[in-house]
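## retry 2 of 3
previous attempt timed out at serialization; input unchanged, resubmitting
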Amino acid sequence: MSAGGTHFPLRETVKRGALRGRALVARLRREPDLLLVEGDTYAATAVALADAYRSVRAGGRIAVLNASDGSDARCAVDGFRFEHGVLPVRETTAGTVEIDVPTPKDPATHFARALREKWREVPVSRSVRAFSEDLARLEDVELLNRWEQHRRETSSPDVRGWYQTKYRDELRGKRVLDFGCGFGVDGIFFAENGADVSFADIVGSNLEILGRVAKKRGLSIQTHFIEDFFDYSFEEPFDVILAIGSLINAPLTFTQRQLDSLLRWHSPGGTFLLLGYPRERFEELGVRNGHEFGMLTDGERTPWCEWLDRERVEQLFGSQYEVVFERSFGVGGTEFNWFELRRCAE
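## retry succeeded, writing output
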Protein backbone atom coordinates (compact mmCIF):
# COMPACT_ATOMS: atom_id res chain seq x y z
CA MET A 1 0.00 0.00 0.00
CA SER A 2 1.37 3.40 -0.95
CA ALA A 3 1.56 4.87 2.56
CA GLY A 4 4.37 2.46 3.31
CA GLY A 5 6.65 3.83 0.56
CA THR A 6 9.75 5.96 0.99
CA HIS A 7 7.71 9.11 0.37
CA PHE A 8 6.30 8.77 3.89
CA PRO A 9 8.95 7.94 6.54
CA LEU A 10 7.03 5.99 9.17
CA ARG A 11 7.46 5.88 12.92
CA GLU A 12 4.59 3.48 13.45
CA THR A 13 2.72 1.18 11.07
CA VAL A 14 -0.30 -0.94 11.94
CA LYS A 15 -1.88 -3.38 9.50
CA ARG A 16 -5.52 -4.13 10.15
CA GLY A 17 -7.52 -7.21 9.23
CA ALA A 18 -10.58 -4.96 9.11
CA LEU A 19 -14.20 -5.79 8.34
CA ARG A 20 -13.10 -6.38 4.78
CA GLY A 21 -9.81 -5.75 3.04
CA ARG A 22 -6.54 -4.28 4.31
CA ALA A 23 -5.79 -0.92 5.84
CA LEU A 24 -2.80 0.90 7.21
CA VAL A 25 -2.42 3.63 9.83
CA ALA A 26 0.91 5.46 9.85
CA ARG A 27 2.49 8.25 11.88
CA LEU A 28 5.08 10.53 10.31
CA ARG A 29 8.34 11.25 12.13
CA ARG A 30 8.38 14.81 10.84
CA GLU A 31 4.71 15.49 11.68
CA PRO A 32 3.76 13.59 14.86
CA ASP A 33 0.31 15.21 15.00
CA LEU A 34 -0.64 13.86 11.57
CA LEU A 35 -1.80 10.28 11.02
CA LEU A 36 -2.03 8.75 7.56
CA VAL A 37 -4.80 6.30 6.70
CA GLU A 38 -5.11 4.11 3.64
CA GLY A 39 -7.52 1.25 3.01
CA ASP A 40 -8.35 -0.83 -0.03
CA THR A 41 -12.10 -1.05 0.72
CA TYR A 42 -14.76 1.11 2.34
CA ALA A 43 -15.01 -1.07 5.45
CA ALA A 44 -11.25 -1.34 5.93
CA THR A 45 -10.83 2.43 5.60
CA ALA A 46 -13.67 3.04 8.06
CA VAL A 47 -12.07 0.81 10.70
CA ALA A 48 -8.65 2.39 10.13
CA LEU A 49 -10.19 5.86 10.54
CA ALA A 50 -11.69 4.80 13.87
CA ASP A 51 -8.27 3.53 14.99
CA ALA A 52 -6.59 6.75 13.89
CA TYR A 53 -9.15 8.89 15.70
CA ARG A 54 -8.49 7.05 18.95
CA SER A 55 -4.73 7.52 18.52
CA VAL A 56 -4.41 11.11 17.29
CA ARG A 57 -4.38 13.95 19.79
CA ALA A 58 -7.19 16.51 19.92
CA GLY A 59 -6.35 19.30 17.50
CA GLY A 60 -4.36 16.95 15.26
CA ARG A 61 -5.07 15.83 11.71
CA ILE A 62 -5.86 12.63 9.84
CA ALA A 63 -4.94 12.36 6.16
CA VAL A 64 -6.80 9.75 4.11
CA LEU A 65 -5.16 8.62 0.88
CA ASN A 66 -6.96 7.65 -2.33
CA ALA A 67 -10.12 9.46 -1.17
CA SER A 68 -11.18 11.12 -4.39
CA ASP A 69 -14.86 11.96 -4.78
CA GLY A 70 -16.97 8.82 -5.28
CA SER A 71 -14.33 6.38 -4.02
CA ASP A 72 -14.82 3.83 -1.24
CA ALA A 73 -12.35 5.76 0.89
CA ARG A 74 -14.27 9.02 0.41
CA CYS A 75 -17.49 7.25 1.43
CA ALA A 76 -15.72 6.11 4.62
CA VAL A 77 -14.56 9.70 5.25
CA ASP A 78 -18.13 10.97 4.84
CA GLY A 79 -19.44 8.40 7.33
CA PHE A 80 -16.70 9.21 9.83
CA ARG A 81 -17.47 12.93 9.58
CA PHE A 82 -21.19 12.42 10.19
CA GLU A 83 -20.48 10.17 13.15
CA HIS A 84 -18.28 12.80 14.79
CA GLY A 85 -20.16 15.99 14.03
CA VAL A 86 -19.44 16.87 10.37
CA LEU A 87 -15.74 17.52 10.92
CA PRO A 88 -14.04 19.99 8.56
CA VAL A 89 -12.10 18.40 5.70
CA ARG A 90 -10.02 19.69 2.82
CA GLU A 91 -8.39 18.11 -0.20
CA THR A 92 -4.66 18.79 0.06
CA THR A 93 -3.39 16.93 -2.99
CA ALA A 94 -5.08 14.90 -5.68
CA GLY A 95 -7.06 12.20 -3.91
CA THR A 96 -5.83 13.00 -0.38
CA VAL A 97 -8.29 14.39 2.18
CA GLU A 98 -7.30 15.86 5.55
CA ILE A 99 -9.65 15.80 8.54
CA ASP A 100 -9.20 18.26 11.41
CA VAL A 101 -9.70 16.58 14.79
CA PRO A 102 -11.63 18.84 17.20
CA THR A 103 -10.67 19.91 20.70
CA PRO A 104 -12.03 18.13 22.65
CA LYS A 105 -12.76 15.01 20.64
CA ASP A 106 -16.46 14.25 20.18
CA PRO A 107 -17.09 10.56 21.08
CA ALA A 108 -19.92 10.21 18.54
CA THR A 109 -22.37 12.10 20.80
CA HIS A 110 -23.34 14.41 17.93
CA PHE A 111 -24.33 11.46 15.79
CA ALA A 112 -26.19 9.78 18.65
CA ARG A 113 -28.26 12.96 19.10
CA ALA A 114 -29.01 13.01 15.38
CA LEU A 115 -30.23 9.40 15.52
CA ARG A 116 -32.57 10.11 18.44
CA GLU A 117 -33.91 13.18 16.66
CA LYS A 118 -34.60 11.25 13.45
CA TRP A 119 -36.05 8.06 14.90
CA ARG A 120 -38.73 9.71 16.96
CA GLU A 121 -40.46 9.24 13.60
CA VAL A 122 -42.43 6.01 13.33
CA PRO A 123 -44.25 4.69 10.25
CA VAL A 124 -48.04 4.97 10.27
CA SER A 125 -48.50 3.60 6.74
CA ARG A 126 -46.39 2.10 3.96
CA SER A 127 -45.05 5.56 3.04
CA VAL A 128 -46.00 8.02 5.81
CA ARG A 129 -44.24 8.66 9.12
CA ALA A 130 -45.32 10.62 12.20
CA PHE A 131 -43.57 11.84 15.34
CA SER A 132 -44.26 9.51 18.23
CA GLU A 133 -44.78 12.40 20.66
CA ASP A 134 -47.62 13.61 18.40
CA LEU A 135 -49.12 10.12 18.35
CA ALA A 136 -48.88 10.03 22.15
CA ARG A 137 -51.39 12.90 22.30
CA LEU A 138 -54.04 10.85 20.50
CA GLU A 139 -56.83 9.03 22.27
CA ASP A 140 -56.35 5.27 22.48
CA VAL A 141 -58.87 4.52 19.73
CA GLU A 142 -57.15 6.78 17.20
CA LEU A 143 -53.68 5.56 18.21
CA LEU A 144 -54.78 1.96 17.69
CA ASN A 145 -56.23 2.90 14.31
CA ARG A 146 -52.88 4.36 13.23
CA TRP A 147 -51.00 1.29 14.46
CA GLU A 148 -53.46 -1.05 12.76
CA GLN A 149 -53.18 0.86 9.48
CA HIS A 150 -49.41 0.43 9.51
CA ARG A 151 -49.69 -3.25 10.47
CA ARG A 152 -52.24 -3.90 7.72
CA GLU A 153 -50.26 -2.15 4.97
CA THR A 154 -46.93 -3.79 5.81
CA SER A 155 -47.99 -7.30 6.83
CA SER A 156 -48.76 -8.46 3.31
CA PRO A 157 -46.71 -11.45 2.10
CA ASP A 158 -44.46 -9.25 -0.06
CA VAL A 159 -43.36 -7.11 2.91
CA ARG A 160 -43.23 -8.41 6.50
CA GLY A 161 -45.96 -11.04 6.27
CA TRP A 162 -43.70 -13.76 4.88
CA TYR A 163 -41.19 -13.67 7.72
CA GLN A 164 -43.87 -13.32 10.40
CA THR A 165 -45.37 -16.56 9.10
CA LYS A 166 -41.98 -18.25 8.73
CA TYR A 167 -40.87 -17.57 12.33
CA ARG A 168 -44.21 -17.52 14.17
CA ASP A 169 -44.01 -21.06 15.53
CA GLU A 170 -40.23 -21.07 15.96
CA LEU A 171 -40.32 -18.03 18.28
CA ARG A 172 -43.19 -19.32 20.44
CA GLY A 173 -42.00 -19.68 24.04
CA LYS A 174 -38.65 -17.98 23.30
CA ARG A 175 -37.21 -14.89 24.98
CA VAL A 176 -37.15 -12.31 22.18
CA LEU A 177 -35.70 -8.79 22.02
CA ASP A 178 -37.18 -6.39 19.45
CA PHE A 179 -34.16 -4.08 19.19
CA GLY A 180 -34.91 -0.60 17.84
CA CYS A 181 -38.58 -1.51 17.87
CA GLY A 182 -40.18 1.77 16.75
CA PHE A 183 -43.92 1.05 16.52
CA GLY A 184 -43.28 -2.62 17.39
CA VAL A 185 -45.41 -4.31 14.73
CA ASP A 186 -43.21 -7.40 14.51
CA GLY A 187 -42.60 -7.73 18.23
CA ILE A 188 -46.31 -7.46 19.01
CA PHE A 189 -47.11 -10.06 16.34
CA PHE A 190 -44.70 -12.56 17.89
CA ALA A 191 -45.88 -11.72 21.43
CA GLU A 192 -49.48 -12.41 20.40
CA ASN A 193 -48.31 -15.76 19.08
CA GLY A 194 -46.66 -16.92 22.29
CA ALA A 195 -43.18 -15.35 22.35
CA ASP A 196 -41.88 -13.56 25.46
CA VAL A 197 -40.95 -10.25 23.80
CA SER A 198 -39.07 -7.28 25.25
CA PHE A 199 -38.84 -4.01 23.34
CA ALA A 200 -35.84 -1.65 23.25
CA ASP A 201 -35.60 1.76 21.60
CA ILE A 202 -33.57 4.98 21.68
CA VAL A 203 -36.69 7.20 21.88
CA GLY A 204 -38.82 7.24 25.01
CA SER A 205 -42.03 8.36 23.28
CA ASN A 206 -41.76 5.38 20.90
CA LEU A 207 -41.84 3.06 23.91
CA GLU A 208 -44.69 5.04 25.48
CA ILE A 209 -47.05 4.62 22.52
CA LEU A 210 -45.97 1.01 22.05
CA GLY A 211 -46.83 0.26 25.67
CA ARG A 212 -50.31 1.73 25.19
CA VAL A 213 -50.90 -0.29 22.02
CA ALA A 214 -49.74 -3.50 23.70
CA LYS A 215 -51.96 -2.92 26.74
CA LYS A 216 -55.03 -2.32 24.58
CA ARG A 217 -54.27 -5.56 22.74
CA GLY A 218 -54.12 -7.45 26.03
CA LEU A 219 -50.34 -7.82 26.24
CA SER A 220 -48.02 -7.24 29.19
CA ILE A 221 -44.60 -6.29 27.81
CA GLN A 222 -41.21 -5.10 29.04
CA THR A 223 -39.66 -2.00 27.50
CA HIS A 224 -36.06 -0.78 27.71
CA PHE A 225 -34.94 2.76 26.95
CA ILE A 226 -31.48 2.75 25.35
CA GLU A 227 -29.47 5.44 27.12
CA ASP A 228 -26.00 4.42 25.94
CA PHE A 229 -25.64 3.21 22.35
CA PHE A 230 -22.60 1.10 23.22
CA ASP A 231 -23.44 -0.32 26.65
CA TYR A 232 -26.67 -2.32 26.88
CA SER A 233 -28.01 -3.90 30.05
CA PHE A 234 -30.83 -6.42 30.38
CA GLU A 235 -31.88 -8.86 33.09
CA GLU A 236 -30.87 -11.98 31.17
CA PRO A 237 -29.84 -13.05 27.64
CA PHE A 238 -32.31 -13.49 24.79
CA ASP A 239 -32.88 -16.55 22.62
CA VAL A 240 -33.79 -14.39 19.61
CA ILE A 241 -32.90 -10.80 18.70
CA LEU A 242 -34.86 -8.93 16.02
CA ALA A 243 -33.20 -5.96 14.32
CA ILE A 244 -35.76 -4.90 11.73
CA GLY A 245 -33.94 -2.06 10.01
CA SER A 246 -32.39 -0.85 13.27
CA LEU A 247 -28.74 -1.74 12.54
CA ILE A 248 -28.33 0.05 9.20
CA ASN A 249 -28.71 3.65 10.36
CA ALA A 250 -25.08 4.42 11.19
CA PRO A 251 -21.61 4.01 9.68
CA LEU A 252 -20.22 0.50 10.03
CA THR A 253 -17.78 1.40 12.82
CA PHE A 254 -20.67 2.76 14.93
CA THR A 255 -22.74 -0.37 14.24
CA GLN A 256 -19.81 -2.61 15.12
CA ARG A 257 -19.55 -0.97 18.54
CA GLN A 258 -23.29 -1.47 19.04
CA LEU A 259 -23.03 -5.16 18.19
CA ASP A 260 -20.01 -5.65 20.46
CA SER A 261 -22.29 -4.81 23.40
CA LEU A 262 -25.59 -6.21 22.12
CA LEU A 263 -24.29 -9.68 21.30
CA ARG A 264 -23.21 -10.18 24.91
CA TRP A 265 -26.95 -10.51 25.58
CA HIS A 266 -27.54 -13.22 22.97
CA SER A 267 -27.74 -16.82 24.17
CA PRO A 268 -25.45 -19.50 22.69
CA GLY A 269 -27.30 -21.29 19.91
CA GLY A 270 -29.65 -18.32 19.58
CA THR A 271 -31.11 -16.75 16.43
CA PHE A 272 -30.51 -13.22 15.17
CA LEU A 273 -32.98 -11.87 12.56
CA LEU A 274 -31.73 -8.87 10.61
CA LEU A 275 -33.47 -6.71 8.00
CA GLY A 276 -31.55 -4.24 5.86
CA TYR A 277 -31.29 -2.59 2.47
CA PRO A 278 -29.34 -4.41 -0.27
CA ARG A 279 -26.38 -3.02 -2.18
CA GLU A 280 -28.42 -3.11 -5.39
CA ARG A 281 -30.76 -0.47 -3.96
CA PHE A 282 -27.80 1.79 -3.13
CA GLU A 283 -26.40 1.40 -6.64
CA GLU A 284 -29.76 1.89 -8.37
CA LEU A 285 -30.22 5.23 -6.60
CA GLY A 286 -26.82 6.46 -7.79
CA VAL A 287 -25.85 8.01 -4.45
CA ARG A 288 -22.33 8.71 -3.22
CA ASN A 289 -22.55 7.86 0.48
CA GLY A 290 -24.77 6.71 3.32
CA HIS A 291 -26.09 10.21 4.05
CA GLU A 292 -27.51 10.59 0.54
CA PHE A 293 -28.75 6.98 0.63
CA GLY A 294 -30.57 7.54 3.92
CA MET A 295 -32.29 10.70 2.73
CA LEU A 296 -33.71 8.85 -0.28
CA THR A 297 -34.75 5.70 1.59
CA ASP A 298 -35.95 7.07 4.94
CA GLY A 299 -36.44 10.81 4.45
CA GLU A 300 -34.42 14.00 4.45
CA ARG A 301 -33.84 14.03 8.23
CA THR A 302 -31.97 10.70 8.07
CA PRO A 303 -28.32 11.10 9.16
CA TRP A 304 -27.00 7.90 7.57
CA CYS A 305 -27.95 4.52 6.12
CA GLU A 306 -25.77 1.55 5.15
CA TRP A 307 -26.49 -1.24 2.70
CA LEU A 308 -25.89 -4.85 3.70
CA ASP A 309 -24.80 -7.97 1.90
CA ARG A 310 -23.79 -11.39 3.18
CA GLU A 311 -20.11 -10.49 3.31
CA ARG A 312 -20.69 -7.38 5.41
CA VAL A 313 -23.04 -9.24 7.74
CA GLU A 314 -20.56 -12.07 8.28
CA GLN A 315 -17.77 -9.62 9.02
CA LEU A 316 -19.88 -7.54 11.42
CA PHE A 317 -21.00 -10.59 13.42
CA GLY A 318 -17.75 -12.53 13.34
CA SER A 319 -16.86 -16.19 13.52
CA GLN A 320 -19.34 -17.04 16.30
CA TYR A 321 -22.23 -16.57 13.87
CA GLU A 322 -23.34 -18.39 10.74
CA VAL A 323 -25.77 -17.07 8.12
CA VAL A 324 -28.29 -19.89 7.74
CA PHE A 325 -30.87 -18.14 5.55
CA GLU A 326 -31.04 -14.98 3.43
CA ARG A 327 -33.54 -13.42 1.07
CA SER A 328 -34.15 -10.20 -0.88
CA PHE A 329 -37.74 -8.99 -1.19
CA GLY A 330 -40.04 -6.00 -1.60
CA VAL A 331 -40.45 -3.75 -4.64
CA GLY A 332 -38.43 -5.13 -7.55
CA GLY A 333 -36.86 -7.71 -5.25
CA THR A 334 -34.27 -5.12 -4.16
CA GLU A 335 -36.15 -3.06 -1.56
CA PHE A 336 -35.07 -5.09 1.49
CA ASN A 337 -32.84 -8.00 2.38
CA TRP A 338 -33.06 -10.45 5.25
CA PHE A 339 -30.49 -12.48 7.15
CA GLU A 340 -31.06 -15.22 9.69
CA LEU A 341 -27.94 -15.88 11.74
CA ARG A 342 -27.31 -18.64 14.25
CA ARG A 343 -24.92 -18.21 17.15
CA CYS A 344 -22.59 -21.13 17.77
CA ALA A 345 -23.48 -23.21 20.81
CA GLU A 346 -20.79 -23.02 23.48
